[in-house]
Amino acid sequence: MTPVITAFAKSPDRGRGLARDMRVRWALEEVEKPYEVRLLSFDAMKQPAHLALNPFGQIPTYEDGDLVLFESGAIVLRIAEQHARLLPEDANARARAIMWMFAALSTVEPPIVERSMAVILERGEPWYEQRMPILEKNIRQRLDRLSHHLGDADWLDGRFSAGDLMMVMVLFRLEGSGLLEEYPNLAAYVARGQARPAFRRAFDAQRQVFLRS
Amino acid sequence: MTPVITAFAKSPDRGRGLARDMRVRWALEEVEKPYEVRLLSFDAMKQPAHLALNPFGQIPTYEDGDLVLFESGAIVLRIAEQHARLLPEDANARARAIMWMFAALSTVEPPIVERSMAVILERGEPWYEQRMPILEKNIRQRLDRLSHHLGDADWLDGRFSAGDLMMVMVLFRLEGSGLLEEYPNLAAYVARGQARPAFRRAFDAQRQVFLRS
C-alpha cells in the first residue's frame, strides 16, 4: 500500500524546500518507501475534504490505509517507528532521538518561525527595525546552546536519526537570514543533512512541483 | 528506581502550574509512578551540571536510571509508552494520540507563548497596543479549528490520552487572557482535564514548591 501525502500546489517558498511536506518526503526517502503526493490549492486546504484530514487546514497530511495523520513531527515519527534506520534500536538512544525531534519543533523552531513571519508581515511596520534584533537574539540563544552541544560531532547523538532530520529541516529555515553562518558547525551540520542522497531526492521532488506550476 | 525531574525553585508563574514540569508531574500521576524533584535556581539552570542534562538550560529534565531526557513532550511520551493508560493499545489510535501531542506543542502552543511573552516583555513598547490584536487573531485561528474539531466530545480522540494531557496544558496557558472563554467547549475541556485527580495531585505538588519558597 502506497501512502499519500499532501503538499502545496503552489508553495509560498517557491520550491526552496521550506514547506513542511519536505520533512515527510525526506523521511520516506531515507526509508525508501514510495509515496504519492496530492497537491492542494490554498482554497482546497480550507475545504471540508481536507479539514477532515487536518482540522487546522494545513499540509502535510499522511494517509496510509486506515491511518490518517497530520503534524510533520507525528508523521516522521510514525515512519521512523515502522522502518528502522531513522531510530536507534537501543531503547534509551531511541528515546533521545525522539527528544531531539521535540527539541527541534518546540525549542528551536518557534523563534525561527517568529522571525520569518515578522519579515513577511511586519516589514512595513514602524516597529520592525526595533523588534528584529530582539527576534534574532532569541534565535541566537538557541543556536548558541545547540552549537555548543553539537561541537565537532557529525550528528546530535551518534548515528543520523529522525532527530537530526527534524533539526536540519528547522535550521534550514534560517537560509538567507545570515544567522546560521554565525555558527560554522551548525552550518556544516545542515550541509551534511543536505548532502544525503535521500534529502536530494526529496528536495528535487518538491522543487519539481514548483517548476511545473 | 524512582525517576528524578527538575523544576524551578522559584517558578516565575508563582505556582499557577504554567511551568513545563507540570506536564511531566501530571503524566507521572496518571500512571501512578512515584518521582523525586530536584529544584533549581535560575543560576543553577545555566551551570554545567544542568547543561549536561539539557543543553538549552531549561526545566524539566527527567532522569530514570541511565536515561536522561529533556523536552516535556519527549518525557511525557516516554512515560506514556512505558505505562499504558496514556496511549491507546490500537496502533492507529496510538499514532493519533501522539499526533495530538505534536499538534499541541507545534501548532497550538507557539502563538500562545508569543502572546504571553509580548505581555511580559513588550507591554511598555509603543507598538504593544497595535500588535496585541494580531497576536490574539493568530491564537483564535487555532482555537476556532480546535473547537470545531472537539465539538461536544470529552476528549480529542476517544479516551483521555497523552495528546489530551498536552493540549489541556497548552490551553491552560491562556488563563487570564479571556481567550479560552470565547470557546465554551474548549473551556469545558480544560476544566475536565483539571478535574482529574492526577492533575490535582500534580498541581498541588508544584504549588507546594511555591508556597514553601
Textual characterization of the structure:
The structure is a homodimer of 213-residue chains. Chain A has 213 residues and is an alpha+beta fold. Chain A has two domains: 4-86 and 198-212, Glutaredoxin (3-Layer(aba) Sandwich), CATH 3.40.30.10; 91-196, Glutathione S-transferase Yfyf (Class Pi), Chain A, domain 2 (Up-down Bundle), CATH 1.20.1050. In chain A, 57% of the residues lie in helices and 8% in strands. In chain A, strands 2-1-3-4 form a four-stranded mixed beta sheet. In chain A, helix 1 (21-30) runs parallel beside helix 4, helix 5 (91-121) packs antiparallel against helix 6 and helix 7 (162-172) packs across helix 8 (184-194). The longest helix of chain A is centred in the middle third of the chain and has 31 residues, at 91-121. The radius of gyration of chain A is 17 Å and the shape is globular. The relative contact order of chain A is 0.16. Chain A binds chain B through residues 51, 55-58, 66-67, 69-74, 77-78, 92, 95-96, 98-99, 101-103, 105-107, 109-110, 113-114, 121, 125-127, 130-131, 134, 142, 145-146, 148-149, and chain B through 51, 55-58, 66-67, 69-74, 77-78, 92, 95-96, 98-99, 101-103, 105-107, 109-110, 113-114, 121, 125-127, 130-131, 134, 142, 145-146, 148-149.
List keywords for this structure.
homodimer, about 210 residues, alpha+beta, Glutaredoxin, Glutathione S-transferase Yfyf (Class Pi), Chain A, domain 2, four-stranded mixed sheet, 9 helices, 4 strands, globular, Glutathione S-transferase family protein (chains A, B), Glutathione_S-Trfase (chains A, B), Glutathione_S-Trfase_N (chains A, B), Glutathione-S-Trfase_C_sf (chains A, B)
